[in-house]
Amino acid sequence: MLEIKDVYKSFGKTEILKGVDVTIDKGDVVVILGPSGSGKTTLLRCINFLEKADQGRAVFGDIDVNLGTATKKQIHQIRQKIAFVFQSNNLFNNKTALENVTEGLVIGRKVPKEEAVKIGKKALDKVGLTDKYDAYPSELSGGQQQRVGIARAVALNPDIILFDEPTSALDPELVGEVLTVMKNIAREGTTMLVVTHEMDFAKDVANKVIFMDGGVIVEEGTPHEIFVNPKEERTQKFLKRVLPEDFTYHI
Amino acid sequence: MSEGLNYKFLVDTFFIALSGVPITLFITVVALLFALPLGFLLALTRINRIPVLHRFAQVYVSFVRGTPIIIQIFIVYSSVPLLLSSLFTKFNIGMNVYDVNPIWYAFIVFSFNTTAVLIEVFRSALSTVNRGQLEAAQSVGLTDVQAYRRIIIPQALVVAMPNICTATVNLIKATSLGYAMSLQEITLKAKVAANVGYNYVEAYIDIFLVYLLLCSAVEYAFKLYEKRLSKYKPSVV
Ligand SMILES: Nc1ncnc2c1ncn2[C@@H]1O[C@H](COP(=O)(O)OP(=O)(O)O)[C@@H](O)[C@H]1O
Ligand SMILES: [Mg+2]
Fold first, then answer.
1. Chain B residues touching A156 at Cβ < 8 A
2. Any idea what DSSP says for residue A5?
3. What are the chain B neighbours of A91 within 8 Å (beta carbons)?
4. DSSP A153-220
5. What distance in Å separates the CA atoms of residue B92 and residue B97, rounded to the nearest whole number?
6. How far is the CA of B154 from the centre of ligand 1 (A)?
7. Model confidence over B110-120: pLDDT tens digits?
8. What structural domains and CATH numbers belong to chain B?
9. Which ligand has the shortest distance to the CA of A38?
10. Closest ligand (CA of A164)
């Protein structure tokens, strides 16, 4: 459904992405693992044109765009299909939770206001924020803010949602509620590309795990392949470092 | 010598000074109407480092802010008539430069001056709005113009408002320098009245009071407006 091909990106003289390919099928939950600085965020940002790749292509159904030279119109087209959940949620500070969710529908997608409100409320209900429609981001906890961020993405009914470490900026006690919401929407069949350090989420929810290091994909496979039988030494070392002692893989 | 204050003069001149308020406000409003949009646009060129324009804005700000307003007034008031009179002769316009109402010079000086102040006000306000706000807006399908109009400007405005208020009050006070261009504003009117009987102390007290009232009223209006704007940040005032 979405093919990302041969993405290169440098900042100044440093090459961050050195030819990355990712293929995602409908209904996939793909998790990207990798040490910090390996280019995971940059990859997601290039896919959504928040960063301009030096080279690379995105094939999305019948749309085939160059990630480096896409026109404004193509960028708009692709963004209609992709939603993004940011590490630091980036909720619109001047909008209520509900307005945050409806903004993209009403303004970005020209959905009539009334319908957008209906969709927005449903999305907020889904993430367990029925009582927070009219709260401003500053009145919400970090976990609630991130759940609004997820509702904002879900409401757009995109073909795929990109998550960039959605829980890593949260206090530990707030991580669970966000992961639960993500699991729920994954179970509903939402296609997701998730950068995360939550190994349990990768193990339990993903059907494909990608290990990235130094701007390249070192290894990819099913969670079982990656967690139980990693082939590459770099993958083994990384997992040894990040997996908790009691991490077990059950099939 | 010490005959005390001339209370009748004090009261009469208060109303004379007060009659200069409309001119002061007129100049203030014209300068703001000119400087708010232009200052905002130039601030955008600064933030987004638009080639040429952002340098121009930077140099412009340092020129205007690096010189006293009174000198800017003298320069405009002495050079513009020269420029105009050579234009008038060249194009055979039968008009005397000295018939030009000095309020035009005031418009020029205070508009350009306030623009420089507001470029900096908007620049710092815009830079407080996290880049993630624009990116989030783009990612939900807003165009850059929509993102600025609906997300970024409303937030920047809340931050800018106290500084816009300060700029406005400073502008009102600075118009008192208009007397150097024989502008019929608060200061000049009261001073002229004082010339007759040398009642300068009374005149100055009146000028003092009128500006104090005017500026307090403007500040109060801004405070009300700020409160309304910042409804989404209940923690901050
Ligand atoms: N806008 C930028 N300018 C310069 N360097 C950047 C920029 N964004 C990211 N980088 C660098 O690119 C590298 C990869 O960053 P990132 O994609 O955020 O990695 P990850 O998300 O895997 O931690 C890092 O070394 C980071 O410093
Ligand atoms: Mg990252």
1. 140-141
2. E
3. 136
4. HHHT--SEEEEESTTTTS-HHHHHHHHHHHHHHHHTT--EEEE-S-HHHHHHH-SEEEEEETTEEEEE
5. 13
6. 30
7. 999 999 999 99
8. 22-182 (1.10.3720.10)
9. 1
10. 2
How far apart (Å, rounded) are the C-alpha atoms in residues A58 and A126? Answer: 30
Q: Which residue type, as a one-letter code, is found at position A70?
A: A
Which atom of ligand 1 approaches the CA of A212 most closely? 22
Report if pTM > 0.80. yes
The closest residue, in CA terms, to atom 6 on ligand 1 is A11
CB of A16 shorter than 6 A to ligand 1: yes
Banded model confidence at residue B235, pLDDT cuts 50, 70, 90: very low
Please work out whether the CB of residue A45 comes within 6 Å of at least one atom of ligand 1: no
Say if residue A189's pLDDT is above 60. yes
The sign of the CA dihedral B109, B110, B115, B120 is positive
Distance from the Cα of B234 to chain A's closest Cα (Å) equals: 8
pLDDT in tens, A98-157: 999 999 999 999 999 999 999 999 999 999 999 999 999 999 999 999 999 999 999 999
List CB contacts (< 8 A) between A92 and chain B.
Answer: 133, 136-137, 151
Residues A146, A125: Cα–Cα separation, whole Å = 14
State which residues have CB under 5 angstroms from ligand 2, the bound ion: A 41
Instruction: For ligand 1, say whether the CB of A215 is within 6 Å of any of its atoms.
Output: no
Strands of A55-60's sheet in order across: A14-24, A2-11, A55-60, A63-66
Q: Which residues on B lie below 8 Å from A88 (Cβ)? A: 132
- Token pair 């005390």 in the structure block, residue: B4
Mutate to test the pocket of ligand 1, among A8, A11, A162, A218 (most ligand atoms within 8 A of CB): A11
Among the partner-chain residues A49, A94, A107, the one whose CB lies closest to the CB of B142 is A107
Greatest extent of chain B over all pairs of C-alpha atoms, in Å = 77
Say if strands A63-66 and A55-60 run parallel, antiparallel, or are unpaired. antiparallel
